Amino acid sequence: MASGNIFREVELPEQKPDSDGALFPAVLSPISNADFTSTAKLNGFEEAIKAHKPWLESLLQKRGAILFRGFPVNSTSDMNDVVEAFGFPEAFYVGGRASRTKILGRIYTTNEAPQDKTIPFHHEMAYVPDYPSKLFFFCQEAPRSGGETPIVLSHIIYDKMKEKHPDFVEKLEEHGLTYTKIMSDEDLPSSFTGSGWKSAYMTNDKNVAEERAAKLGTKLEWMGNSVKTITGPVPGIKFDKGSQRKTWFNSLANSYGGPANAEIYDDSRSIEFGNGEPLSDSAMKDCLRILEEECVAIPWKKGDVMLVNNLMVLHSRRPLIKPPRRILVSLCK
């Protein structure tokens, strides 16, 4: 293997073959004689990452996501060291819609909405021009049941939606999407898009918030201490130069609160085509179904690290059935 004697690729029952026949996601574990059994050996993992980074990046581009399982990543500090070992620049969460908290270094909580609620599929920050290109997820405490982070290859969703609803996809490619969201000045952790404007734009100053929003293509309309954010039109489909494929790069599933997605109805947010036309409920119903049919949901194990190509792969969260669950995240350019 091009990775030398450090990593070995393993198979899990939940993986699915992609359109080229390769299993999604790639799953890497230590070779059987690698002494990666204690925190003291974390440096060995870090050095392996640095030594084989070109191969790992190539694998990520080919497969969309890599799950590292069985390596000695036990703490937030360990995870921060792993992120640093990869050397990707940090992507800051300016304009983000989810409530999250910095834990240490480049490690943050994932969406702080109640864990018994579903978070629909999305590309991270697909509604801003400067979105993260890579995401790290770290399982510090594994759920006893539920709480998976399903992932799905975005080009598959594009292909299936174009086959099923060509007119919908044509409008999406031609007009893009406009996202509207009302933010209060305080976070609302009960919502998976509950970030207040002060957290989202990292300021208490309305003028600074307007400046930072404008750089992200977002217009702010103040409503007392709350604000209506209007973002777009922004593309709903992107072209991935690495794979030479179009990807379903949007937040349709977690922004659309129409009849097909009544479970997440929230009148504080909405989404429409960039020309102002409403979205087709039948197309959205099929989109939500296809996402679920095509996704892979591997149960978390303590110490798992999942690296995701944010341009190629959508992710979501299934409801937690039996606590505990603690998944942390780092966003990278």
From TrEMBL:
Record-linked SUPFAM superfamilies: Clavaminate synthase-like
Swiss-Prot/TrEMBL keywords: Oxidoreductase
Lyase among keywords: no
Ranges for domain TauD/TfdA-like: 39-329
Pfam families to which the protein is assigned, alphabetical: TauD
A molecular function GO annotation: oxidoreductase activity
Coiled coil: none
PANTHER family in alphabetical order: GAMMA-BUTYROBETAINE HYDROXYLASE-RELATED, TAUD_TFDA-LIKE DOMAIN-CONTAINING PROTEIN-RELATED
Protein name (Swiss-Prot/TrEMBL): TauD/TfdA-like domain-containing protein
Species the sequence originates in: Lactuca sativa (Garden lettuce)
Lineage, opening ranks: Eukaryota, Viridiplantae, Streptophyta, Embryophyta, Tracheophyta
